[in-house]
Amino acid sequence: MKTLLTCPCGTDIVGTDEDDLVAKTQAHLAADHPGREYDREMILFMAR
Questions:
Q1: Is the separation of the CB atoms in 39 and 46 below 8 Å?
Q2: In 3-state terms, what secondary structure has residue 22?
Q3: Averaged in consecutive runs of 10 residues, what is the pLDDT profile of the chain (48 residues)?
Q4: What pTM value is reported for the model?
Q5: How close are the terminal C-alpha atoms of the chain, in Å?
Q6: Residues of 12-21 as b/e, b for ≥16 C-beta within 10 angstroms?
Q7: H helix runs in the chain, sequence order
Q8: How many CB atoms lie within 10 A of CB 28?
Q9: How far is CA 27 from each of CA 9, 13, 32, 40, rounded to the nearest angstrom?
Q10: How far is CA 30 from CA 1, 20, 34, 47, in A?
């Protein structure tokens, strides 16, 4: 299970599970990188 993603901006996003990680990553993108949207598959591809 992947629960960590490091955004190219340097922010580490940690989830309790993959669903939580995807939700937190999408929230980070909306807040800090408007216009950047990634689907679940892309987020999990980039995650560890």
A1: no
A2: helix
A3: 97 98 98 97 98
A4: 0.94
A5: 8
A6: ebebeeeeeb
A7: 18-32, 40-46
A8: 16
A9: 14, 10, 8, 12
A10: 24, 15, 5, 18
